[in-house]
Design brief:
The chain is about 50% helix and about 5% strand. With about 180 residues, it is mostly helical. The chain folds into three domains: about 1-60; about 65-90; about 90-120 and about 155-180, no CATH class. The strands form two sheets. It has a two-stranded antiparallel sheet with strand order 1-2. Strands 3-4 form a two-stranded antiparallel sheet. It is elongated.
Length: about 180
């Protein structure tokens, strides 16, 4: 009986020690992950600042000049690929808000910007590095899931030009005016 008590006591101590080590190990792994995430965020902030310097015509030396040329080339390739995708989808990107819209639209149904002569979205260079991380405010009608279409299609008819517009549109596709 003493052997069983002794074995049980040793087993309890071993389990307690191992579980304590497991908790310590888990805590250290969490601390490590948090520090690595902090470092990643610092790298991102440095990169944003370097990009901002180059976006406004600055330079940081040959190494960064070459890296920035690579960034610009990559951005150009990304834009080219996006344009090819837009052509395949039959859409274009609004110059005002950056959303994809049907390429036949003359005005953006989301922001009312004219699409005449402009094919790609070109965001302005950031004025303040702190504003880069500000979330985009999305109107509730865009967040809400679309209702399934019934057999009868509904339109908003523009009071100014008579154009039929999608029910969720806020601006007329024909003349760009605000829809009621």
């Amino acid at each position: 009986m003493e052997d069983i008590k002794s074995t049980f006591f040793n087993l309890k101590n071993t389990i307690t020690k191992n579980s304590g080590d497991f908790v310590k190990n888990t805590k250290l792994n969490l601390d490590l992950a948090n520090e690595e995430e902090k470092l990643k965020l610092i790298y991102i902030e440095i990169g944003k600042k370097v990009h901002e310097i180059y976006a406004y015509g600055g330079s940081l030396g040959e190494y960064f000049d070459e890296k920035y040329r690579q960034v610009v080339e990559s951005q150009s390739n990304i834009n080219s690929i996006k344009e090819k995708i837009e052509v395949l989808k039959g859409v274009k990107t609004c110059t005002g808000c950056g959303r994809q819209i049907d390429k036949k639209h003359i005005y953006c149904p989301h922001c009312g910007a004219s699409m005449a002569g402009a094919e790609t979205y070109k965001p302005e260079a950031p004025q303040d590095i702190n504003k880069i991380n500000e979330p985009e405010i999305i109107p509730p009608e865009i967040i809400a899931p679309e209702k399934p279409q019934e057999a009868k299609e509904e339109y908003k008819v523009c009071a100014s030009c008579g154009e039929k517009n999608p029910p969720q549109g806020r601006f007329c596709l024909g003349c760009g005016r605000i829809l009621n």
